[in-house]
Amino acid sequence: MDTVWDVVVIGAGAAGLACSVAAAEAGASVLLLERGQALGGTTVYSVGSMTAAGTSLQRRAGIEDDTEQLIEDMWDYPDAGLSGDAPDLRRLYAEESGPTLEWLVRHGVQFTLPNIEPPHRVARMHNVVPSSRSYITRLAEAARAAGVHVALATEVRELVLEDGTVSGAVVAGPEGESTVLARRGVVLATGDFSGNSVMRQEHLSEAAAAALPINPEALGSGHQLAAQAGGELVAMDRLFGPQLRFGPPPRRGWLDRLPTWRWLCAIEGAVVRHVPASALRPVVKSLLVTHMSPTDALFRSGAVLVDRDGVRFGQEQDPAKELSARPGSTGYIIMDESVATTFDSEPNFISTAPGIAFAYFTDYRRGRPDLVTRADGVEELATRLGLDASALSASVGTSELRAPFVAMGPVHSMLTVTEGAVRVDGSLQVQRPDGQPVRGLFAIGAVGQGGMLLKGHGHHIGWAMTSGRVLGVRLAARPLDASSTRIQDEEEAA
Ligand SMILES: Cc1cc2nc3c(=O)[nH]c(=O)nc-3n(C[C@H](O)[C@H](O)[C@H](O)COP(=O)(O)OP(=O)(O)OC[C@H]3O[C@@H](n4cnc5c(N)ncnc54)[C@H](O)[C@@H]3O)c2cc1C
């Protein structure tokens, strides 16, 4: 690994890969450092929806869209407390998300035609085909083609600071510890902090801190590196959740096992864009029963939530928060056949991908038999689930439920992602609390949300890809500053 690069990018999820590819394609030498054994980060856990305005896929579907409407709609999520959070970043998102999606399409990423998700006034949510793994495969191919040097199993533990400017990073990899320097910028693309229990306890509510992270490797190390360099952390207490989620199936679904070969993805993309939505329903339903949260409406219809001892511990007003306080943040949804039947047809779904499809009780019974347990009585149900029979009996006694019973679970209280991030300005440079930049240091994707709260589907990937691509292009064109010239002098002297 060489010592001096134009751009050093830390973290190889959506944001880090997009930034590395864009910078290298624009002529910069790029070192991409990834702590894990593989590329992908939280991005590969995602469903892969990306919300963007003014795309060719929207035009193909006859949809006219523009930047100003996207900005207005992003602020329109009810009760989300978004108003005025980071206007310059929302504008960047709105202006550049469309060109970024086109850039991904040029690199071979396949999308469905856009779907609508209120409060967006038009369809803007583009879903990747067949899964989020294809973002990583296509960008990894592009990185190789553009000459990005990727170092896996290589962690950044410290930034190099010279006279207040970040000029490089101390890395620990398979060959030991070394220092790398960046002439044009060091980029944090390290994801969120939902997997770091110490940071969760420091910044989040008790319920959110106790919930289980979906990606336990989302450790917030970029937040810490930025703070050590003088950067400000913002909106650290914010997140949307926790949410109830079922665990993954015992065996990965076939959609998650499909290879991401370019030609195969191209065929799949053409198929999903041309066949009627009804023909794709079985595929979408299998996605829903694997990835989506069960609705709280179950509880309003009489279902109860018990913990893994069989104890009903609340009134299911905010079930995910209540469950996070119980052992293992894990429990079961208990209902009877009458409730299950209610959730077998419109408008009562168990989970949904908004605007795309709904999954009903029968879809879970067929698609996730591991999650559905039926029994003629409480004792039998307790035995089948391994719960304490008297506790479960007492819990059911507090409800209107009648035998035969149905349980869904185990269900967990989980954090999808955290929203708190490093403050960045419109150029994505890290900011100090006094509004001055931390020179040489940039942040993108989840760690670079800069106080912008990304409620709704498709905005996180949209921001990760958009901020990454935009910064890559800008850094490649960035004039070298005094400290970078010093790096160059040292390199020449060596
Ligand atoms: C279940 C689930 C579903 C989701 N679905 C969607 C969706 O459909 N649409 C959407 O918009 N968003 C979705 N999200 C959110 C979205 O996936 C993330 O916000 C986004 O992928 C973050 O991308 P990123 O590049 O910023 O970070 P990541 O993808 O997390 O990448 C960060 C990388 O940095 C590496 N790293 C961290 N620290 C270091 C270090 N010190 N040194 C070296 N490497 C380091 C990590 O190992 C990781 O690979 C979903 C999230 C989850 C959990």
Can you describe what's shown?
This protein has 494 residues and is an alpha+beta fold. It folds into 2 domains: 316 residues, FAD/NAD(P)-binding domain (3-Layer(bba) Sandwich); 133 residues, Succinate dehydrogenase/fumarate reductase flavoprotein, catalytic domain (Flavocytochrome C3, Chain A, domain 1), CATH 3.90.700. 37% of the residues lie in helices and 21% in strands. It contains 19 helices and 21 strands. Strands 1, 2, 6, 7, 8, 9, 20 and 21 form an 8-stranded mixed beta sheet that branches. Strands 10, 12, 13, 14, 17 and 18 form a 6-stranded mixed beta sheet that branches. Helix 4 crosses helix 18 and helix 16 packs across helix 17. The protein is globular. The relative contact order is 0.19. The model has no long low-confidence stretch (mean pLDDT 94). Bound molecules: flavin-adenine dinucleotide (FAD). The site of flavin-adenine dinucleotide (FAD) has 42 residues, from helix 1, strand 7, helix 8 and helix 18.
Q: Can I get a quick summary?
A:
The protein has 494 residues and is of the alpha+beta class. The protein folds into two domains: 4-241 and 416-493, FAD/NAD(P)-binding domain (3-Layer(bba) Sandwich), CATH 3.50.50.60; 281-413, Succinate dehydrogenase/fumarate reductase flavoprotein, catalytic domain (Flavocytochrome C3, Chain A, domain 1, Alpha-Beta Complex), CATH 3.90.700.10. It has helices at 14-25, 56-60, 67-74, 87-106, 133-146, 197-203, 206-210, 221-228, 254-257, 262-274, 277-291, 297-300, 319-324, 337-342, 361-367, 378-385, 389-397, 459-477, 482-493; strands at 4-10, 30-33, 49-51, 110-111, 125-129, 149-151, 155-162, 165-173, 176-188, 212-213, 233-234, 243-246, 304-307, 330-336, 351-353, 357-359, 372-375, 405-415, 421-422, 429-431, 437-443.
